[in-house]
Amino acid sequence: MKKLKNYIESSIGIRLTLYYCAILLTTLVLCGFVVIFGMNFALTKEANSKIKVAISNIQNSLQSEENPNLNDPELVDQAGSLELWIQIYKDNKLVSKSPNLGNIKLPFYNGPVKSILINGQEVLISGKDIGNGIFVEVAHPLKREKHFLAVLSGLLIFLMMGATLFAMTSGYISVTNTLRPLAILTKKVKEINTGKLDERIPLSGPKDELYLLAQAFNEMLERLEKGFKSQQEFVAAASHDLRTPLSVIKSYNDLLKRWGKDDKKILEESIQTIAVATQRMERLVNDLLFLARVESKPRINFVKVNTKELIEEIAKEAQALSQTITVTFSTCDLYVNADEDYLRRALWALVDNAIKYNKENGEVKILSREEGNFAVIDIIDTGIGIKEEALPRLFEKFYRVDSSRQSSGFGLGLSLSKEIIQLHGGDIKVKSKYKEGSTFSVYLPLYPPAIKGKNAIL
Ligand code: ADP
């Protein structure tokens, strides 16, 4: 029993078939009951009227004569053909009865039609006093009707069983056929692992729910494949960037072991280089940790921030750090809903790049403006610019446009900025002309937060 239950629960096809067969059987049984009940009612009604007509016929023929002959066989003639039993009494004495009664004697009953049992069989009976001491009693045995109803019931039960069995078999076959793609899907899903993410489920047949499921699954695989690939690239790039300072430290360590203790120059150079390499590693690890924190979608401490104050602060700091580049700003009071520390870090990465990738004596401008429901901060530089083909990959982690001209960056600044701004419901757009300069535009929803749907310009 438990095995059967498990089998039923393990297959949608069997469950669906059983469910629909149960509905079909219930409907058929209800219809059967209605048919049997209706037929029984109609047959009883017909018998009823036959009895009444017979009584009134006898009454008419007796009343039409002055001295009626109660033994006249014509009186009870109708009995045989209509399956009626007739008894006629005169002054309470039985004087005539239909021959089909044989040995049966009807019990004395004066009243409308009612059902009684005679010798174990159901009979409808009615009796009437028709005057002059004459009493007529007519009965109808329901044997034929009962037999008809029994045959009809048997036939209906047979048909119900047949129909249910047919529905069960054909239903199971068609449901199993319909659900076959699910089995293929399950098999494929079991086969797919991280080494086989390029596998796809073949799409065929009508565009029904299963087709859409397989399509959605393929799309998910595509996203997973992309994510997995970029994860692999990320790990490779991170290890590569960590390996360089590590090998510097290792080689200076070897140098120190061999000669460093006695050679003061080597000792000093080693200490200096190891300190720079350690600093670089520390910076990379910090960036990675921060990126991991931002990517895990932290709870942001949103407050009302005036972009004007923040921009002025960043611009002054940037000017102080860079002697050769001129940093200017033009801002207005624009409020955004943001975590100030995160926002400062995102903007600072863009301003830092604008200085880093600028030309000698170049310029950096920071402007703020309002566009729809957004506060826009433009960071414009007159620097080396970015080639058009590099723009689509610019915000990828560890991406550096041209490694030959690289400074100390790891290619994480822009991806970090973008993650932070997107966490605030905004985005960063870039326009650049190679060798002429770049403009990074930061879009942030204005404070108070706009009604959903209004931020659609991005
Ligand atoms: P990095 O730490 O290398 O600066 P980023 O993610 O900040 O990393 O920048 C990625 C790359 O985009 C940089 O290596 C640089 O080539 C290019 N880049 C970013 N900002 C600018 C800019 N203002 N002008 C020119 N190139 C830029």
Automatic annotation (TrEMBL):
Pfam families membership: HAMP, HATPase_c, HisKA
GO CC annotations, alphabetized: plasma membrane
Keywords: ATP-binding, Cell membrane, Coiled coil, Kinase, Membrane, Nucleotide-binding, Phosphoprotein, Transferase, Transmembrane, Transmembrane helix, Two-component regulatory system
Protein EC: 2.7.13.3
Domain of life of the source: Bacteria
Domain (HAMP) ranges: 176-229
Domain Histidine kinase: 237-448
Membrane topology reported for the UniProt record: Multi-pass membrane protein
Record GO terms (molecular function): ATP binding; phosphorelay sensor kinase activity
Protein name: histidine kinase
Keyword Lyase set for record: no
Organism: Thermodesulfobium narugense DSM 14796
